[in-house]
């Protein structure tokens, strides 16, 4: 375990590969949060499908896991039933099979953003993934926000942290007469 809470397998890959893993993580999470996630062809292996399909068994899945090293979409749940058109064998787990065949170890759950390490058999809680997920969520919220203009720039004024000064606030600005007029409506009863 590393100081930031992640497993050692994230750091065993090189710096460039680690940057690619984070880039793939942001892409998968942007896709999963988008409104048109079911028809985005860039992550569906180039074909329009109703739901994304597993890269090994071609089974449609609502909640795919995506390998962060090669971006392959995989099934997470073992199959107990097979259909005639399904190439998947009874009890086959595509995600584990992919990890054994390729040596890859990191996958993201596209619905939650949680990262699974196959080598550790545990969920990875790295600060880098948490920060990337926060940025993706903020960008998606700004994209859907009606206060954002056509060019992508926010119409809102950016928050500036106030800097305290030694100058006292002018509290006594003088007396001003405040008039109050009350009008009551009387209804004849």
Automatic annotation (TrEMBL):
It holds the Pfam family zf-UBP. PROSITE patterns: ZF_UBP. It comes from the Eukaryota. This is UBP-type domain-containing protein. The keyword Zinc-finger applies. Keywords: Metal-binding, Zinc, Zinc-finger. Residues 5-143 form the UBP-type domain. GO terms for molecular function: zinc ion binding. The lineage of its organism: Eukaryota, Fungi, Dikarya, Basidiomycota, Agaricomycotina. The keyword Metal-binding applies.
């Amino acid at each position: 375990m590393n100081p930031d809470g992640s497993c050692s397998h994230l750091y065993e890959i090189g710096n460039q590969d680690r940057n690619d893993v984070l880039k793939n993580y942001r892409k998968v999470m942007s896709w999963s949060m988008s409104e048109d996630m079911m028809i985005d062809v860039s992550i569906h292996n180039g074909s329009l499908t109703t739901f994304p399909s597993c890269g090994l068994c071609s089974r449609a899945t609502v909640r795919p896991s995506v390998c962060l090293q090669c971006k392959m979409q995989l099934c997470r749940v073992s199959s107990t039933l097979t259909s005639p058109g399904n190439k998947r064998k009874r009890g086959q787990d595509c995600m584990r099979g992919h990890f054994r065949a390729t040596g890859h170890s990191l996958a993201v759950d596209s619905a939650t953003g949680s990262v699974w390490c196959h080598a550790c058999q545990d969920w990875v809680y790295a600060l880098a993934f948490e920060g990337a997920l926060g940025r993706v969520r903020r960008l998606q919220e700004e994209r859907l926000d009606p206060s954002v203009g056509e060019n992508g720039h926010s119409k809102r004024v950016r928050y500036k942290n106030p800097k305290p000064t030694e100058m006292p606030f002018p509290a006594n600005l003088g007396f001003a007469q405040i008039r109050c007029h009350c009008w009551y409506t009387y209804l004849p009863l």
